[in-house]
Amino acid sequence: MQGEITALRMQPGGRRVRVYINGQSAFSLAVILAAGLRTGQWLADEDTARLARENAREEAFQRCLGLLARRPRSAAEIRRALQARRLPADDAEEVFRRLAERGLIHDGEFARAW
C-alpha cells in the first residue's frame, strides 16, 4: 500500500504503532521500526514491503528474546523457533546472528543448565 502517512497511533501495551495511510488503518509495526516514520511522509509500495519484512524480523527477534528470558536455549532450539516463524532463510539467519552477536546463544551454558 502506498500513500501518505496520516497518523501514527500507539497501540495498547505500548509495543506496536498503528500506521494510517491516506486516512485508513494500513498496518502496525514494532515501536523501534515506527520511530523512523512521521506523519506527512510518503510511503511507496517498496517502502511498505521493506517495513513488513523488517517487522517480521523484529517480531522473530523479540520472540526469541522471550524464549531466552525463560531459560537458556540451544542454538538448535533457536533455529527451530525461527523456522516456525516461516521467515525467509536469510532473514532467519540475520535474527540468529543478532542474537549470537549479543552473546545470547551459548550451547555450553545451555548444556550446563540442562
Would you kindly provide a written description of the structure presented here, covering whatever features stand out?
Helices cover 53% and strands 20% of the residues. By secondary structure, the protein is α+β, with helices and mostly antiparallel strands. α2 (45-70) packs across α4 (89-101) and α3 packs antiparallel against α4. 15% of the residues are buried.
Set down the secondary structure blueprint:
Elements: E1 3-10, E2 16-21, E3 24-30, H1 31-34, E4 42-43, H2 45-70, H3 75-84, H4 89-101, H5 107-113
Antiparallel strand pairs: 1-2, 1-4, 2-3
List keywords for this structure.
114 residues; single chain; alpha+beta
Class from secondary-structure proportions = alpha+beta
Strand order of the largest sheet: 3-2-1-4
Q: Number of DSSP helices?
A: 5
Label the overall shape.
elongated
Biggest sheet features: 4 strands, antiparallel
N-to-C SSE string, H for helix and E for strand: EEEHEHHHH
Helix content: 40-55%
Mean pLDDT rating: 93
Query: What is the gyration radius calculated from CA atoms?
Result: 17 Å
